[in-house]
Amino acid sequence: MTTTVPVSADGTPTVPGPLKLFAECFTALADNIERVVKGKRDVVELALVCLFAEGHVLVVDVPGTGKTTLARALAASLDGTCGRVQFTPDLLPSDITGVSVFRQDKGQFEFLPGPVFANVVIGDEINRASPKTQSALLEVMGEGRVTVDGVTHEVPRPFLVFATQNPVEMSGTYPLPEAQLDRFMMRVSVGYPDHASEFAVAAGNLAESVGTLPTIATARHVEEFARVVRERVRVPDPVVDYAIRIAVASRDRSDVRLGAGPRGSVALVRAARVRAGARGRTYALPEDVKALAGPVLAHRLLLAPEAELSGVTADDVIAEIVARVPVPQPTAVRDGSPVGTG
């Protein structure tokens, strides 16, 4: 195993400056994934923000843009467990969470864990499963545990659900309910590669494949760095207030039937904290909130029919809100670090 993070005997980071170490690990992970996901640094970093913010990511894009490759590359960069589910109409909830079976030799039921009992769970074409099966993910994505036959089982930490969805092929699919979408911290789109990146892929000039990617960090590192970010990166009150005002603004619009709820504003603050830490800062700025507002909030909006017919998208609404909500003025915090858009 190759790791960029010095560790002690129990697997915890030992180098002074844990926040600096986190930023270096974040960059190393992004560089590693970019070996096979070319020209998509922004999307790669969004996925890593979700990982360290202990959230989940939904990638919605047309076939062939590298959705599953991104998920596999992220999983390969971590020395943790990986589960994969190919969602189909006949998939059952127990195929995801696990099932209790009776062992005659022991005379008792034994729980057989499903693929969600992994650090990274890849869900391919999540909208192809029935709503009943999709609902099997609600508890585990929201609480990090699964209840089967009245018994609760904790999933490993860290825990990231990386789901993909094809937005153009609607035959045989089921729309994700709002409660399911709200469990995802972010919805992102990979998009088509630039000409140089597509040329490298088509010409077979990629020196790496997902199977040859080195391991950069362990699951223990991710869990420890998530704790470091929570404890050492501050989100000043004006920045928290700014995130909340953006979410609240989405609830009072004639073109929106359902705005972003409190889970959205909480996710926006958590993601901003990780983004700040990944850039080596001990405090979050309004620019962190602005950069993440679209991926974190857009999928939580339910547009009015008139807006959809006129071609307005949820991303358009969030962009307009961000442009309209006043940005906090620079101010001083206790350690003298600036808070503002500087």
Helix-strand pattern, N to C?
Answer: HHEHEEHEEEHHEEEHEHEHHEHHEHHEE
Class by helix and strand content? alpha/beta
Spatial ordering of strands, largest sheet: 3-6-9-1-10
N-C termini distance:
40 Å
Which spans of ≥5 residues are poorly predicted at pLDDT below 50?
1-6, 12-16, 332-337
Percent in strands: 15-25%
Number of helices, counting only DSSP H or I runs of 4 residues or more: 14
Provide a concise account of the structure shown.
This protein is of the alpha/beta class and about 350 residues long.
Q: Could you characterize what this model shows?
A:
The protein is an alpha/beta fold and 342 residues long. It contains 14 helices and 15 strands. β14 and β15 form a beta hairpin. α9 packs across α11 and α12 packs antiparallel against α14. The radius of gyration is 21 Å and the shape is globular.
What tags apply to this protein structure?
two-stranded parallel ribbon; 342 residues; disordered N terminus; 5-stranded parallel beta sheet; alpha/beta; 15 strands; 41% helix
